[in-house]
Design a protein that fits this description.
181 residues; eight-stranded antiparallel β-barrel; 1 helix
């Protein structure tokens, strides 16, 4: 029940913020220079053992759909967690290049519990919400991007997880480097 409440709360929060911020009637001019594709990777996440590659498709100048792949190999001394996932999300630009983003990471996880000398395997899902700003440098046909984020996330489904791996929420800064084309 707690997972459902967290998921509903984050979904309602994103909807309310989007509706109140963007609900007004604005005349948007068609931007023929809009670069629809963006590939990003994190520079800070590898320091904690998380590797990700993210593809954004900008279907308008304010909205993007996010797809990606991630692998994590995190040491919880003396235990270990291996996680491979698919990322699906939505990014909404609300002011210039400032944006909010909601992602769901779905995948399989293997926890190695050293004290029991046992592996726990299972499917898991967690939600990651991001608040960030994208800095762009135009280089002709491509644009280089640097995007600092503040991330907040929680588990939606923990699968077969031992009690020693009880990390239900997390907050951390992140920095993404990318290329728009």
């Amino acid at each position: 029940m707690n997972r459902i409440m967290k998921f509903l709360f984050s979904s309602i929060l994103v909807l309310v913020v989007s509706m109140t911020t963007f609900g007004q009637s604005i005349k948007i001019k068609k931007d023929s220079t809009l670069k629809k594709h963006l590939i990003e990777t994190s520079v800070l996440s590898p320091t904690i053992g998380v590797y990700q590659i993210i593809y954004n498709y900008n279907f308008s100048n304010k909205n993007a759909i996010v797809f990606g792949l991630a692998h994590s190999n995190i040491d919880h001394d003396p235990n270990q967690s291996l996680y491979n996932s698919i990322i699906v999300g939505y990014r909404r630009y609300f002011w210039k290049h400032a944006h909010i983003e909601a992602q769901i990471w779905i995948g399989n996880n293997t926890y190695t519990e050293e004290s029991e000398n046992k592996d726990y395997r299972g499917y898991q899902a967690f939600n990651e919400n991001r608040l960030g700003y994208q800095f762009n440098w135009n280089l002709g046909r491509i644009t280089l991007t640097v995007t600092p984020h503040f991330n907040f996330g929680f588990w939606l489904h923990k699968g077969n997880k031992p009690s020693s791996f009880d990390n239900s929420t997390f907050f951390y800064p992140n920095l993404l480097l990318g290329v728009k084309f």
